[in-house]
Design brief:
Oligomer: homodimer
Largest sheet of chain A: 8 strands, parallel, barrel
CATH topology of the largest domain in chain A: TIM Barrel
Number of domains of chain A: 2
CATH superfamily of the largest domain in chain A: Queuine tRNA-ribosyltransferase-like
CATH architecture of the largest domain in chain A: Alpha-Beta Barrel
Largest interface: A-B, 38 and 38 residues
Strand order of the largest sheet of chain A: 4-5-6-10-11-12-13-14
Amino acid sequence: MSACQFTITARDQQSRARAGVLQTPHGVVHTPVFMPVGTSATVKSLTPDEVKSHGAEIILGNTYHLYLQPGHELIARLGGLHRFMAWDGPILTDSGGFQVFSFIYGGIADEIKGRRPPQSSNLPGQERVKVTDDAVTFRSYLDGSRHVFTPERSIEVQHALGADIILCFDELPPFRAGYDYTAQSTDRNHRWARRCLDAHERLTVEAPPGKLPQALFGIVHGGVYADLRRESAEHLGSLPFDGLCIGGSLGQTKEQMWDVVSMTVPHLPEPFPRHLLGIGDIDDLLENVARGIDMFDCVSPTRLGRHGTALVRNRENRWRLNVSNASLREDDRPLQEGCPCATCRTFSRAYIHHLVRSKELLGIRLISLHNVAFLLNLMHEIRTSILEGRFGAVYQAWLGRSIGANTGP
Amino acid sequence: MSACQFTITARDQQSRARAGVLQTPHGVVHTPVFMPVGTSATVKSLTPDEVKSHGAEIILGNTYHLYLQPGHELIARLGGLHRFMAWDGPILTDSGGFQVFSFIYGGIADEIKGRRPPQSSNLPGQERVKVTDDAVTFRSYLDGSRHVFTPERSIEVQHALGADIILCFDELPPFRAGYDYTAQSTDRNHRWARRCLDAHERLTVEAPPGKLPQALFGIVHGGVYADLRRESAEHLGSLPFDGLCIGGSLGQTKEQMWDVVSMTVPHLPEPFPRHLLGIGDIDDLLENVARGIDMFDCVSPTRLGRHGTALVRNRENRWRLNVSNASLREDDRPLQEGCPCATCRTFSRAYIHHLVRSKELLGIRLISLHNVAFLLNLMHEIRTSILEGRFGAVYQAWLGRSIGANTGP
């Protein structure tokens, strides 16, 4: 009884890129797909209508945040997350693990994505977080209150939220944890994955009539170590998941992240949809689609929007435009020429520059909407090119290089 | 050569309320009308499309803010305020006077509206602002830079912005200024009104071909003093304005404000549209329509939205609902039952409560949109009732009392 059906519809000849269709109880998702993140049941500053009309087929919600505020039980009483936030399309919730460990270790989110070196010498077991084989104890970032998460608890919370796709609860050791701790943690994550499957099966069986089925994805760990990644991929691939994520430390640089994906994907079962957790830079989307990833999520489009940065077709500047830059003061062009989003159809750079300078909320809104649309349009372009057998040309056009050997089949 | 044509289409039998049609170069405005305020070329957190689709026919822009950032000359170079902010309907700009004096005296904005007693003993001529018969010197709230405004300068700036309706530059003495200063200031405002008319005429004659005509409204002063109000109304009513505003101190209580309107309106020429500056509480809209006001503007719907307060049909609580109140935690109803706005059609109080608690921008957006729509719908209800000869019933339904003697013809 699978809650989501994945069908691969096209494969690229030069790389591992593939296009597929994922069917969920709330609708169809065309892959490769980018999922805007609605952390606290809102894609920040945007309405569900806007996100949907600009091409989003699925969004991601954060279990950790929703568990703390307003609480999963309240959301369940109000009819589940879809109804609560008025998004009637597919939703994926993460397990809470990422946030629990991010808030505790500090900087892990950046470190995992290779954006900066470790900031502290904290290691699991040395500080405020308590990780045992059974559970993780943490304090709320809202009020300092003490909470205990177990694999079973995470799955219970995610069943209450009611997303179409839910994730296993996992520990995320930082890059600096080293081989031995990463190996131990990966083993424990495998035991937790089993417990998540069992809890999911029990809750699915016990679900009241009419409750829509949910799909459960496992999360492959192993840090930057090829043998651990392979072992994790093969182990989780043998369990009855509906899909698999690549999680944990992806190294300290983009290249190392791409290598981790390259060393992992070949050991994942072909039929499973593959989700690379938390990644959304332009080059990372293209590189990882080429390596066989089907699903992406990232807060970057709305986070960049809040910081006044728009995504544009400018590789030299990492596809970013600082909208508060004085050079935009009288720039009558849209953020991106040819962009079909509501922001670019209506407003000039000069106007949005003025809004950002004036600290107007509309500025954040307009840039966030453009950024979300920009990534969704990129994914649409990528997907179409795979279906039409010309992904290599799109890759080349965006990155200015041809698909490398390590991305090939 | 009038840039706006006003036609009275219906009159209430029990009061001075009237319905009319105001034609401007950017479209028709049906009065009585509420104008959402777009201080810095944005109705805060909302798009022009949203504001228009929820019933706004005209919005107000603030000359003071736009003059300082991004600058009226830049807006003119980019095609004028309509194009800059992508609002193709009618716009009214104020003269900058209100803000110049508000920022200087401190608290005058509240005092004028009768919301609180004077906070300081500053009086004109005693402090940082320099007011002479010729000009006002003030410092920017943005960077402290020194600026000089004259009646001519204000009209020049407003011609550069290009609103359909522009206002005379005026001094706003606070309530505490007393009779003598208010009388002197009113006289000076009359001299400034003449200078504004002259500058407007000159700039209109000199305007490049194709520039749309602008209407100029005078501003009646006189504080809370009946003889000064009458003198001001009669004097300005004899000049070739396109409409008249009631400005200056309206006293310290709502009742005093209503009295000021009652003592002023009978002396205004019937054919002129009448704008009561900066007023937008529910009871004030009804009371002042009953006293013969045609046009209103106020920042309150979006300001309340930013503070998590929604407008609702609850007279006992001054038509306000504190959305962050814990009682809304599981309230599955819309902000206002039966409200046709996009917020109420889509989202529950529980969800918006969650957004406010989580400090999510979407919460501000949704409440602001509802509040703007709420006032626009109220004005639509009022206008329709005047046209259908049943304004008294609407007044009674909202205020729980019948129209008083002092509002009558």
